[in-house]
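Subject: sequence -> structure tokens, single chain

Hey, anyone have a minute? Need the predicted structure for the following. Not urgent.
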Amino acid sequence: MNPAAAGRTTLRRLLTRWWTGAVVLAAMASSPALAAQAQADAAPAPATLSVVTLNLWHDKADWPARQRQIVAELRRLQPDVIALQEVLQHEGLPNQAQTLAAALGYRAYFVSVDSTAAPRRYGNAILSKRPVLSLDWKALQPADDYRTVAHARIAVGTRTINVYATHLHYKPEGGAIRLQQIDDLLTYVDATAGGAPSLLAGDFNAPEHAPEFAGLRQRFHNAYGTLHPGIADDAREHSTLNLNQYAPLRIDHVWYEPAAFAADAAQILFNAPDADGVWASDHYGVQARLRLLP
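Reply:
Had a minute. Here:
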């Protein structure tokens, strides 16, 4: 082989070695990123929970027409959990929560201080589309105000979530009574949560920034207020009291533990009559979509 040919052969070998080394180095450099991307692609989407709270206004006005409207909207929204207040049953009226649950294909849990044998029972309820792991309830203090909290432990994928539904004292001047009920409610949460994330939903009969909710706000965030910062509690466009009957005030709430959830969306429901002019309730509803944090 002449010297020129030998030189070309050596150069080709060097180029081949350089190219192979460059390919190996590129693969080594990119493999962690590729592995991380593959892992991210394979990871399950964050678990979310859609929660609705609505005061049913028991059987006032045209309940059959109101019921049809409520069922149609909840069927469209398909929330995971529904908290209901002012749920009624009597001899001429099947339990409203159970009626709604049957129409939606949900499981209903109704609680009341009224005896199970009483012909008329009035209370709160939780409806769940998710698997229910356990159910419980408590009568809130003071006992002569006849208030309750319902508790459902539900499964959200592989996670366990506590849902508490309640309806607090109604008089505007009854802040001291609501404070006692909040203290009793938070004590009950501490005794029953079992380390799982918790949320509270219902008609609290006072605005988010009421003084009696100071202890509640230290531990829980308000889903609607978090996503609409700076709004006044009596802003008309954010009221949960039906403006056809009341002055504006946002008193229906979904509260969540900020260490466990992030609020992704919140909206007012049932804030317009249907095509026949029928309102769903004397309250509007609230829907919140919460994302479970890792």
